[in-house]
Write a structure and sequence with these properties.
2 copies of one chain form a homodimer. By secondary structure, chain A is of the alpha+beta class. The first copy, chain A, contains 7 helices and 11 strands. In chain A, the strands form 3 sheets. In chain A, strands 1-8-3-6 form a 4-stranded antiparallel sheet. A 4-stranded antiparallel sheet of chain A has the order 2-7-4-5, covered by helices on one side. The first copy, chain A, has a 3-stranded antiparallel sheet with strand order 9-11-10. In chain A, a hairpin with a 3-residue loop joins strand 10 and strand 11. The first copy, chain A, is globular and about 55 Å long. The first copy, chain A, starts with 29 loop residues before the first helix and ends in an 11-residue tail after the last helix. Chain A binds a DNA duplex through helix 6.
DNA sequence: CCTCGACCTTGATCAAGATCAATTGGTATT
DNA sequence: AATACCAATTGATCTTGATCAAGGTCGAGG
């Protein structure tokens, strides 16, 4: 495990950036990108490393470029709940607030594109393409949070697991295979414990339900982290959601 | 129960509007208010009445002026989870989306200040004071949703009830009594069933835990809906949250 | 006054998931 | 090769809250 990499030599040209199409900057024109470029820098985090702790004063905001990070809150007696899953292009930090409310942790190796906070806030005030995009992304996150509330409040353990697998299957089939062509293979970026934190379960229950899904043939495990989904429709049935998947706009 | 009141004669001058300081319009100047005034109208809903159903196409967005409404999602087998509680000044609807994802229901009599959607969206694009305020409100809602996720995923039934009472106590002491001066009295705007929908419990469990809190003297019930909190600190202890209450900025 | 219906409370029982504990399998360390 | 370590699995038992069921309270309307 290496120390935090503050002085990274990584530098990505916005034009070739893998999250160019979906991040806060997706609506920026060339001159706006140049402004952003002046206040941006990259940081790498190793899997398991903390990015910020709840209560920290943070002087940057930014986007996840590669890897997976998680937002979590810990109660004083140690109970832990993940409240956000940050995938590439997701935004980290809240403009207009000094301290973070949540622990942000790298669950895999993470590369972040950071913006110094004060200049970013100034830029936001004068650049509608940034603030509008951020509003849109925040509304999407709110929708995701609400879907997650249904999961936490009303779904059974098995439904929770199935729902989580569907989320990863959707995300990975988006970026790799042209969706649902036969079986889907996903690499779980989370430990059983992190899955439990996400789903409001214990890691033992996660493990048992994974085994149960394996026994009924809904999933096939290759090692601990690689999951094969032979029939996506069958997995969908296990989520408890209604069939259409709620495609809205 | 009366029919939906589309042709309400209610009209409030923005200058005297009770939610003027906190709603989407809170940063508008006189001329912006005038623009809003041209596209605004009022609608009343009776307690229990549906405002919109999930999947509906809605041609307005707006603010709750008085009363309490709830956002909820229903699973196909009838399990129901509330995903948002809309109090005066809260915003309803999502700009840029045709259909609603959630059922919006008036839990008490509600007065809404509605804006026709298309003109509102156009106005947003040209009026930073509106879109910035909406971003801020959405970020606040996201924080609230995340706190709620901790509640749903990790809190015990008793902690859930206590947390809900604290939320209402905070909101009502904000608008009435100068906070924590001895005992606090709150009128619950929710039935036991609605509380259960909010908390991811059954109504029986809600009732039992209310009785338990009554028996230990943490709360006193006057009728079914009026709750007296003799010692707010003691109620806070029952929530499972850490003591400081997480005052951030 | 009585009845009806909505809302709430309480009791008995059951099941899902938590907890506690032991074991396995894989990988890094020496 | 032996050891230690970590994540994951599996088993046994316990607890919390769900479920099923019965009754109570209160206000509105005949």
């Amino acid at each position: 495990m290496t120390a935090p990499d503050f002085t990274s030599t990584v530098h990505i040209q916005c034009g070739t950036c893998p999250i160019r199409q979906r991040a806060v900057c997706s609506r920026c024109d060339a001159s706006e990108l140049e402004e952003l470029d002046q206040i941006k820098y990259y940081r790498k985090f190793d899997a398991g490393q903390s990015i910020v702790w709840a209560g920290d004063c943070v002087d940057f905001v930014g986007s996840v470029v590669t890897g997976v990070a998680s937002l979590a809150q810990t109660m004083e007696d140690g109970r832990r709940q993940m409240v956000g899953l940050l995938l590439p292009s997701d935004f980290v930090g809240r403009p207009g607030r000094k301290q973070t409310r949540y622990d942000v942790t790298a669950t895999t190796d993470v590369l972040m594109c950071c913006f110094r906070k004060a200049p970013f806030e100034k830029l936001m005030a004068t650049t509608p393409s940034v603030s509008q995009r951020l509003l849109e992304m925040t509304l999407d996150e709110l929708d995701a949070a609400r879907e997650w509330m249904v999961l936490l409040g009303r779904k059974t353990a098995k439904e929770k697991i199935a729902s989580l697998l569907v989320i990863f299957a959707r995300r990975s089939s988006q970026s790799t295979v042209p969706a649902y062509a036969g079986s889907i293979i996903i690499d779980l970026p989370l430990t059983r414990e992190a899955m439990a934190d996400y789903l409001g379960l214990t890691l033992e229950t996660v493990s048992r339900q994974m085994s149960a899904l394996k026994k009924t043939g809904v999933i096939v495990l290759q090692g601990k982290r690689q999951v094969i989904i032979p029939d996506f429709e069958q997995l969908l049935l296990e989520t408890g959601d209604d069939s259409d998947g709620g495609m809205l706009d």
